[in-house]
Amino acid sequence: MPRSEPSKADQDLIHHTRAQGYAVSASQLERWRRRGLLPQPTRVYRGRHGTASVYPDGTSDLVCALARHSAPGRRSDDLALLAFFDGADVPDAALKLAIARAYFNSRLRHENAVAQAAACVPEGWETVLGKEYETAEAEARTELAKGGRVVRQMRINLRRLPDLAGASQREVDERLVGVLVGLNRLRLPEDDHEFMADLSAALAFDCVQDVDDVFAVWEYAAISHSSQMARYEETSPEERFDLLLGMSREDLCDLRKEVRTAVDQMWHRATWGLEPEADLSRPWMARRSAGMLMEWMSARQVQLGKVSLADLYFLSLGHLELCCLAAERSAGEVWQHPVGEGRAGFIARTTGPRHGT
After folding, report:
1. Which of 117, 155, 262, 317 could bond 310 through an S-S bridge, CB–CB 3.0 to 4.6 Å?
2. What is the pTM of this model?
3. For helices 211-229 and 193-203, what crossing angle results, to 10°?
4. Phi then psi for 22, rounded to 5 degrees?
5. Is the separation of the CB atoms in 293 and 108 below 8 Å?
6. CA dist list (Å): 138 to 31, 120, 226, 265
């Protein structure tokens, strides 16, 4: 509870948010201030009227956004991200900390999982397939182990293929791993017709499914393939963190606009034009958007020409679809009956006398 009567500035905030339909208490404002989600008011001189506490411009909208997304047990980081992607001016320190934790915590967990998957590669396999393939497969196995929206929807999509309709999950997963490996390689293996057939089925550009899961599949594919299309430069976590710390308020707002536009554009396509905007009021969506912001913050520094994140993802998905159509045309009848294979099948098909190895 507040230790004293709320200030005139706090009372004005409370009245404003109530007028907008949100009930906010003085103790709640104090709690948000302690967590860094609200700026401290400043004292200004009012001449013969003395001094008064005044909040920065935009604070009323920020309080409304915090109230709109507040929920019992909701973490401060999630609340900061939800308010930020709702258009509010979240204080820099709390916002940057929330973005950094959302991105680096997820990245660290992912890198540890990939390292564990890579350590399971049998001795000698790397000399056959190469380090680049092994790294891509470790990424793929890690994604499969997560079993999230991307994996769930890609399994459903792959079962549309006649030879997988009644297959066991293990068979489907081996084919799915092949798709994920291809998307995680440095370059898309466009000349591999069997892979491209499975990729086309997994992405299901022609099929209306659950919107959230279609969005997740296309988002994953767009991000993966945009990396394959772009210039590659490694950026250390320290460099990315320093870059984030140096971002101005204007820079962060510009990045937010680009991320929102990219997400909305992909959502619009996933809903077949029925919904123009994605709903970022869910914490997992806000955290994913924060991750996209961090990745694009670094990637846009090496992009040739002036290209937006939305343009990059749109071009990435469009190029994937064109690649699938081109592979279908060149494969002919083979496309209708893609060959299922695991690691051994891949090695048998891509190595040996006819490949000069």
Report:
1. 262
2. 0.72
3. 140
4. -120, 130
5. no
6. 43, 9, 20, 30
In angstroms, the first-to-last Cα distance of the chain is 74
What distance in Å separates the CA atoms of residue 19 and residue 252, rounded to the nearest whole number? Answer: 29
Q: How big is the CA angle at 187 (ends 131 and 171), to the nearest 5 degrees?
A: 75
User: How many Cβ atoms from other residues are within 10 Å of residue 354's Cβ?
Assistant: 8
Give pLDDT tens digits for 270-294.
777 778 888 889 999 999 999 999 9
* Among the listed residues 212, 135, 147, 149, the one whose alpha carbon sits nearest the alpha carbon of residue 173: 147
**For the packed helices 211-229 and 249-270, what is the interaxial angle rounded to 10 degrees?**
120
What digits encode the pLDDT tens for the residues 189-219? 988 888 998 999 999 887 655 567 888 898 8
The beta strand positions in the chain, using DSSP E, are 42-45, 51-54
Q: Would you state the pLDDT for residue 18?
A: 93
Strand partners, 42: 54
DSSP label at residue 352: S
